[in-house]
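Protein record

Derive C-alpha cells from sequence
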Amino acid sequence: MQTVFTFYAGRMFLLRFAGLLIFFVVILQMLDLLNKSSDILAIDGAGGAELLRYIQLRAPQIVSQFTPFAALLAIVLTLAGLSHTSEITVMRAAGMSVNRVLMPFGFMCALIMVAHFTFHETVTVKSSEALDYWEANDYALNLPEDQETRTNIRLSFDSEFIEAESAELSDGRTTMRGVTIYRVNDDGIAESVIEARSALHEEGVWRLFDVRSLDPATLTVRQSDSAVWTNSLDPDFLFALALKPDQTSLGELIRKIGQLREDQADARDAMTSFLSRFSKPMSTLVMPLLGAIAGFGVHRQGVLLVRAVTGSALGFTYFVAENLALALGKLGVIPAIIGAFFPLALFLIVGFSIILSMEN
C-alpha cells in the first residue's frame, strides 16, 4: 500500500508541477511579449521570426525563475487534495508517518532541483547572455556573433566614477558606448564631468570620441572630436568589474572572482551571486516542508483553505527572505555565504519543526 501511495502521490505532484510551470511560462511570456513586441518590430525587416527568437531567449529565464514557485503551489494543491479526499488520513491510519507521506514529494523535488540546476547552467545562462546582447543593440537584425559584451556599466576606478551604456570586445579591441566619466576628489565631490559617444582602447590607451566636458567650478563646457582618457583601467579588469554573474558560466565566474580578488577589487557581489547559483535550485527542497501544513491536521484546527493559504504564505515568505538576504550579501552588509544559504538553513529548521509538531 505504501509503495502504491508513493507512486500515486509522486505522479500527482509532478503533473501539477508541470502544469503550473507551463501556465506561468505562457502567461508571463505573453505579458512580456506585449511589452517588448513594439520595440522588436520597430526594426526594418523584423517579423514573426524575431518574435519567436525573443520567446526562445526569454522563456528559459522565466522557467528558471518560477520553478520553485511552481513546486510550492503544486505541493500545496496536491496535499490539500489528498487531505480533502481523506487519503492522507487513510495512510496515517495504516501506520504511515508524516515523513513517509512526504517522501514522494521530497524525492520529486530533489529531481526537480537537479533538473533546475542543469537547465539553468546549460540553457538559461547562454540565453540570458544572448538576449542581453540583442537588447543592447536595439534588437538589430543580422548581428555579428557576440564575443563579449557588458551593458549598463557603473563602476569606480582611479578616483573616477564611470558609466557606460555598453562595452564590447571585438577583434581584440574594446569599445564602450555612451560613456560618462565623473572625476571626484577625496571628499567625493565631482571636479569635472566628461561625456563621450564612445571610447576605444587601443595600444594601451583609451581614446574618447565626440567629447563634451564640464567644469563645475566655472560651469564651462568644452567640446572636441576626440581626446585621450588617462585612466589605467585595462579591458580585462573592466570586464571583471562589470561582470554579470547571471550571464556567466560557473567556470568563468570563478576565474573572474579570482581576478577581482587578485586586483583587490570588491568581489562580494560576484561571490554572493556564485553561491546563489547553488542555493536557488536547492530552495525547491524546502517546499515540501513548508507546504506540508496544507495536508495534515484535523478540521477542528482550521478549515482546509486556511491551512493551504498558510502553507503558501510560508513558501512566499521564504522567497522574500531569500531575495533580501541575497541583496544584503551583494552589498557586503553580510558575508556572501550567509546571504546565499541562511534563508535556506532557517526555513529548513522551520519546516522540520512543523513536521515534528504534526508528528506529535
Notes: Residues 235 and 355 are 53 Å apart (CA to CA). The first helix runs from residue 2 to 41.
